[in-house]
Amino acid sequence: MRSVVILGSTGSIGENALKVAEALPDAVRVVGLATRAKVSRVIDQALQFGVQVVAVEDRAAAAEAAALARPHGIQVWAGAEGVAALAGLAAADTVLCALVGLAGLQPVLTALEAGKDVALATKEVLVSAGELVMRRRAEAGVSLLPVDSEHSALFQCLQSPAFSPACVRTRAGEPAAEARVARLVLTASGGPFAARHGIDFERVTPEQALDHPRWTMGRKVTIDSATMMNKGLEIMEAQWLFNVPAERIGVAVHPESIVHSLVTFVDGTQLAQLSVPDMRFPI
After folding, report:
1. Three-state SS for 180?
2. In terms of Cα–Cα distance, which of 152, 120, 159 is closest to 136?
3. pTM for the model
C-alpha cells in the first residue's frame, strides 16, 4: 500500500487523485493534504480520508483552517514552509505534487531529500530546475513519476514489454534505450481555438480561453493550453524526464485527445498510449 501526501489536493489534479484513492482503499492511503487557501474544502477532505495533518500555504487561511480543524484533532501547518515540511512527512512514502508553478519546487526537493517517491504534475518544477531535481532524484535513488497525461503516456510506452527489459530503466530521468528512440511525440488538443478560423485574437476573452473542449483543468494550465505555451513547457519537461534532446521531441495537434503521446523507434515503429480524456488514468 502506498501512503501518499497530496500537495494541491483542492485543485483539479488533487481532487482526481482523491477519487483514485477512494476507489483503491487497499492500495492507497492518504496521510497528508495541502492547499493554498481553500480551507473548508481541505478540512472536508481530511475528515473524509482520516488525514491528521494538512498544510495551508496562505497564513491567514491557515489560521482559519486551524480553528476548523482543532475540534477534530487535525494539525494545520502554515505557510510555504509548512507545505514543504508536509512533503517530508515520515508517514508518507509517496508525494504527489500538484501545486501551481514554482510553489512546487521546494516541496519536491524536500520530498526527494527525505527519500520519497515523487509523482509530479507540476511541470514548472523541471522547467525551472530540471538539472537540480534530477540530480537529487538520482542521489536519493527514488522514483520520479510523471502525472501529466502526455508524459505519463510516454513513460508507459517506454515501460512496455515491447521494449526489451535489458534496454529500459525503471525510473524516469534515466536513459530509456536512447539508441532505439528516434522521436518522442507529445499530442496537443489545440485548446478552445484549435478548430476556429478567422479569430480576432485581440478580442478573445478570458472566458473563451478557459472554455477547454476536452479537459477540466486549473485556470493557469487551461490558459497555457489555449496559447499552446503548455507544449513548450512540456517539451522542456520531457527532456529532463526521458533524457532526450528537444530536437527529438515533437508535437502533434490531436483535438480528440485520445492519443496522449507516441514513441517512434529507429526502425519506424511506434508505440502510443490511448484513452478517453480522464486524469484518473495517469494518476
Report:
1. helix
2. 120
3. 0.86
* Torsion, Cα of 243, 246, 249, 250 (10° steps): 170
Helix (H, G, I), strand (E, B) or coil at 33: strand
CA-based max dimension of the chain: 63
202 and 100 within one domain: no
Q: Is 67 in the same domain as 138? A: yes
List the Cα angle 46/17/56 in 5-degree steps.
Answer: 45
Of the candidates 233, 257, 259, the one whose C-alpha atom is nearest the C-alpha of residue 246 is: 233
- The answer as to whether 280 is a domain residue is no
Instruction: Please tell me the distance from the alpha carbon of residue 234 to that of residue 77, in angstroms, as a whole number.
Output: 32
Identify which of 107, 136, 110, 111 has the alpha carbon closest to the alpha carbon of residue 124: 107
Q: Single out the residue of 160, 154, 181 nearest to residue 269, CA to CA.
A: 181
Is residue 105 situated within a structural domain? yes
Average pLDDT by stretches of 10, the chain with 283 residues: 98 97 98 98 98 98 98 98 98 97 96 98 95 97 95 91 48 54 88 68 75 70 76 93 93 88 90 93 94
